[in-house]
Here is the input.
Amino acid sequence: MRDGDRKNILMTEYNINKEKPAPENSIWKTVGAQTNPSRWDGARWSSFVDHISARGVTVHAGRADTSVFVSDAGGLALGMPHGVVRPSSASDISEVLKAAQEYEVPVTTRGGGLTTEGESVAFGGLLLDMSSMNRVLRIDPDGMTVRTEAGIYWHQLAEVLRRDGLDYLSAPLNLTSSVGGTLGVGGIDINSPRLGCSADQCLSLKVVTPTGEIVECSTDHNPDLLERVLLGYGQFGVITEATLKVRPFTPIIMKYFYYSSLRTAVEDLQFIANEDAADYSGILTIMDKAINLLVAFDSDEREKGFNLRWRRHLRGHGEINFGLRMAGYYLTHPWRLREASYLIGRRLTLFPEFSRPEYMHDNKIVDRTVVFSRAVWKFWGGSKMVIPDLAASEEKFIEAVERGNEVCRKYFRHYTLYCVGIKLSGRRERYEMSCIPPDARGMAYGCEFEPMLRDTDYSRDYLQSFKNEIYDIGVDMGLSYYRFGGMMKGYVRKAFGDELVDKHREMKRKADPAMILNRDVIF
Amino acid sequence: MKTVKADVLIVGASMASSAAAKRLVDAGLEVVALERRTLPREKVCSGILSPRGHRFLVENFGPLPDETLHEPKSCRGVTFHFPSMISIPMDFTGGPTPHLYRKYSDHWAITRSGVIVHDNTTFTGLEDTGRYINVRARREGAEVLYTVRFVIGADGPKSAVTKALYPGYRKGIPWFMVGQKFQKIIECPLDSDYFHFWFHPGLGHYTWSHERNNQQIVGVGFPSGGNLHKAHANVERYLEEKHGVRLEPAERLEGLAQNFGPSLINRYVFGKGNVLITGQAAGFFNMLAEGMSCALHSGAIAGESISEAVRRNRPVQEIYRALIASEVKRCTDQWNPLRIIFGNPHEADFKASFGKLSRKEKLTVIRELADFLKIYAPYRWGRQILSQSLVRMLTGEYSSGRWL
Here is the structure.
């Protein structure tokens, strides 16, 4: 090829903004995909804005309006929308999406912005800030359901439900993730071993499809759309309303068991989940030799039952017993004193957060959403958050946790592992190409690997290498991930295989011909 | 005089610049990159990329178009050759990597970054007023003034930005000359899937060969002041005698001065105030496919540091020097004998390939490696490398006190 020709071809290649397939013959697939998208070039943006403005939709395009959305909770992916719309109704969104198809303007949806891989960051185009749609519409205490707008934060929803003595089933342990965003990816709580992921408590949805139709869907009505949208990573529509199951609100009684072996702790976690021995269970490590298995109960009866039947099977220690063992260990390993002081510091600062007097009544935690969310942000929050994870079947889980732990140890001095079970509600179509691993039956397990970054300085690429190394374990072992979108989407094909990804991409293409809705998230 | 205002000015339009630009443009900053020549421009480079560099390019700029590649399109790894004729081929971990045509790969990357590029524009000097930086440049004979908040010097080994900040710096470090000639192949038994490197003190400080577009590249590096043609003829003769490589007379010659050294002994130069130095200008320079990788990563860190400084209102040097530590580790580890023996700092498994040799061959290789290193003795790097290696072992970090 002559240089002149080469240059011409290149100039057209460089400038295309639409996705283009990787070159054939290629060694590139092994590497992944472009996970830090190029900024959309803004072609036809102003015509698009004129079009939707004429239909009563306001676009905020000032630098102050757009720059607050430059990143998400992860703080690593950066991108600026051309403009922001705060919809007040499904028909606003419908106008936006119809026009976006016509003008080929990328649209990114954002709820609480609590993604960590830039899934809710707009790399140009329009950002739909869904937090403007945050009303609770109806509570049905007889049918035990709630109908809510999907931009609401779980915490706001909880506040409203509490007035009627109700609670949602399960939601992420932080205050400001939105209902819509959570249903789109799954949502894990420490009661997920009993109640499943948050998306599974959903009965019906109002969705605006990528082409702008407003559709109601449930298991009886448009079930295909429901199955696409739940755990669909925002690809098949914008959720504007959701009907969720609710349950009576109960304060909880919490207990801790301490382990010095990850394997034993994970085995016991799985034992508890399989036996349905507790209402809540999860593992939170302080260090890999100081592991906390927490269990909690909705009622005194459940606690009693646990103490009678299952307590003696657990190999974890009580706090005093474990403290003495650790003291013994550090007395004989005095060069590890720094580790010991970290442990003590953690014990003195973190644990009281779970029993602050203002949230305790009769030795019970009155509102776990508040207590856990506060602790999560206080101790794990920071300007950057990196939480790679592995999701595995019961059989593969322990090995996944141990291998991931080795990777953490290589990269960071302090980190936390958070492990929890997720009950599956049968073989749902929604689980395909989701965080639920394909070989999981009945129960899946997830482990998050979270370095204690606070405000330490690590470069984004150092953190990316860490994430990649965790995710490589997933590829090697045939696992799945909770966060496989955005900066991690290079793993989508590696983890799920071309056939499945192409199938979903085909469905996406059908539903969203111009590929405008959340286009940078997984495809 | 024409005046341009922007948030950040990047000097250079190569790999490190593209990576820095990508981070800054994504963060919504106004960024301009200056390039002395007309783009796309040729660049002296093997074009061999490490897996980490490949990953960075794909993750940040997308799959590489075929036009950015030479033939053969990919490289499986590196083969080390020793005077005793022992050869050790090593594959890159994770499979082959692309063989880049720098003229177009660099242009592709800088275009994909979304930065505004002013080519044909030469940096001539800068003045930091404390509040902003005035950068003087020359475009087609006319002076242009850039008024910016931050400057990134990513302008390669003989960096004009480094010179503007530290006028004496260039004289204080050793310089090497690398030259490569392109010759049509009559016969070449060297495996074209690999980049070949010779640990032979009689040939040069850095001697390599690989195939590109049906030509064989034979290259040699030596201290500045040597004679390229003589050194090259010597290598060509050696390859013919020992490896049976027969080539037609050279059609083309490329040469370049390189600042090999700062990365070995942890003597990087990172700039001052709101001026950051990055890429090879900062001393990130690694042989054997790692050069572009550390340019890309250090450049990205420079960009990230500025966006962090703006977002968090913190001094940029403080952030840059903290973030760059991981890249320093990565780059300097590759020369750290303790890391080479006890770790695996390279992206091709030397130890595994070495392990396949017989005991006798292993001893020969070790002896010949030691003989080869002797030609670097005049630079007195040995003691510094060892002391840095010890510091790295004890504290887990290289000392930032040695950086300029």
